[in-house]
Design goal:
- The structure is a single chain.
- The chain has helices spanning 28-32, 40-48, 52-72, 132-141, 144-150, 157-174, 233-243, and strands at residues 2-11, 16-25, 82-85, 91-94, 101-108, 111-118, 124-129, 192-194, 197-201, 208-215, 218-225, 229-230.
- With 245 residues, it is of the alpha+beta class.
- A hairpin with a 2-residue loop joins strand 10 and strand 11.
- The protein is globular and about 50 Å long.
- 40% of the residues are buried.
- The structure holds coenzyme A.
- Coenzyme A (COA) binds next to helix 3, strand 5, strand 7 and helix 6.
Length: 245
């Protein structure tokens, strides 16, 4: 099992906030060894899950989210925190001593990544494997302007399509709606290469911007308020290390 966790700052003009992260790569049997981290409410829900894949993704999400909370507040007893689900399936942190922390969760291919953040400063995260087989389906969901943007950065087309998709999914998590909306509302306005990363602004949700990293066979996007400068260097370094193994 590989676990990276840490903190990062979110600098704004008149305030600075701190967020936590956890990047977890684990096999199903390693996850079940950590089951004591589940709150009894979570354990009861877990026991209702029938499919191995969902049991695995649930543990990846809950364990990484708790460790992301633990990265911010080492005195928390993580087994006493319950992460429930809101009416649109968004995660809701309950019973934490450190109040007003929330989490954003993503899981894929034995990887669970979670961000913990103060509720006053929302964040969203999404992770996808770049899979040529999915590219046509993603393309059908992108707008003509987004498709045009895919040709403007030095990445294979299937990677760029997946990247835009993760940006939109991460934004939909901040909105707490998921993709249950007209996807055009999540449209990106721009796509630029900045060093090893890619950034986008959104056409309609102008308060937010996305930062993406492509490494190994995966793309990860984090959406932050547009005027926030996040110090994500360590996060991206751990992300690259984990997916490139
Ligand atoms: C929410 C959604 C964007 C998740 O993206 P994904 O690539 O499928 O999955 P990820 O692993 O990246 O993210 C899953 C996590 O997102 C979080 N999530 C789910 N719904 C969310 C919402 N409305 N807002 C914020 N976060 C949400 C959950 O924490 C979930 O993990 P968990 O169920 O283990 O707690 C996407 O599934 C969606 O929009 N779903 C709504 C449409 C729908 O319900 N389709 C039917 C699915 S069976």
């Amino acid at each position: 099992m590989l676990i990276h966790r840490g903190k990062f700052t979110l600098k704004r003009e008149n305030s600075t906030h701190t967020a936590g992260f956890c990047i977890l790569h684990a096999a199903p049997e390693q996850l079940t060894q950590q089951i004591n981290l589940l709150h009894p409410e979570e354990r009861s829900y877990y026991e209702t899950l029938k499919f191995d894949r969902r049991r695995e993704s649930y543990l990846l999400g809950r364990i990484s989210a708790k460790k992301a909370i633990g990265a911010l507040s080492s005195f928390e007893d993580l087994g006493k925190i319950a992460i429930g689900a809101g009416i649109f399936q968004f995660p809701v942190v309950k019973y934490a001593v450190t109040r007003n922390l929330q989490v954003s969760i993503t899981h894929c291919d034995g990887l669970g990544i979670a961000l913990s953040y103060p509720e006053v400063h929302p964040l969203g995260i999404d992770l996808e494997r770049t899979d040529k087989a999915n590219t046509e389906a993603i393309k059908e969901q992108l707008t003509a302007d987004e498709l045009a943007l895919t040709g403007t950065v030095p990445l294979p087309g299937d990677v760029t399509c997946t990247m835009i998709w993760t940006m939109k999914e991460a934004l939909s998590k901040i909105l707490r709606t998921g993709l249950t909306m007209d996807l055009k509302l999540l449209e990106i306005q721009s796509l630029a290469k900045e060093g090893d990363l890619y950034t986008s602004h959104f056409k309609h949700l102008i308060q937010y911007r996305a930062i993406s990293c492509y490494a190994g066979a995966h793309v990860c996007s984090i959406v932050v308020p547009g005027k926030t400068t996040p110090d994500l260097d360590q996060f991206w370094q751990f992300f690259r290390e984990t997916v490139s193994r």
